[in-house]
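User: Fold this; tokens only.

Assistant: Input:
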Amino acid sequence: METLNHLSRLLQEGDDSGVDALTREAIASGIPAEDILRALLAGMAVVGERFKEHEIFLPDVLLAARAMHAAMGHIKPLLIAQGVPGGTKVVIGTVSGDLHDIGKNLVGIMLQGAGFEVLDLGSDVPPERFVDTAVAAGAPVIALSALLTTTMVRMREVVDMLAQRGLRGRILTIVGGAPVTETFAREIGADAYAFDATSAAARVRALLPVA
């Protein structure tokens, strides 16, 4: 449908006012909210791929995310009213002792663009807050970020706490950040490793059972 293709293109261009207006028009014309959401997610997938290939840059991703947010303000109430399940929840944050959040914020944007509901705890987050939030929210995934070699060891504390509480396997972990490697992720028992923000959504998706 041309309207939905146009909506996807506007999102890729970061035209938040255009996306806002066309989303309202699509709703008024009777296009199902689920179809609108699929068009938006398709647009964000293109944005993520172009960012990965260095064809666009962080400001472009942020503009697309703002456009996505504008559209979701209109369709989310409709999806809820229709009983359409919300996106899978992902708890995300930078581990305790680390105040860096730019990379974590970008991962959050990519996850939201892929349709996940992101519970962002910010930076300097203690292990128990990650675990308690995931349990309370029913989130099956915790995404941990660290930029310092001195704080990346905190990731192990979250993994260990899940094990101590008998939650390993029910709540999965994915780790990432400048000093983090796939080898380190395996050593601490994390379920997955994302080498950059654009790979994070795909790795989280791969962790979850196919609906």
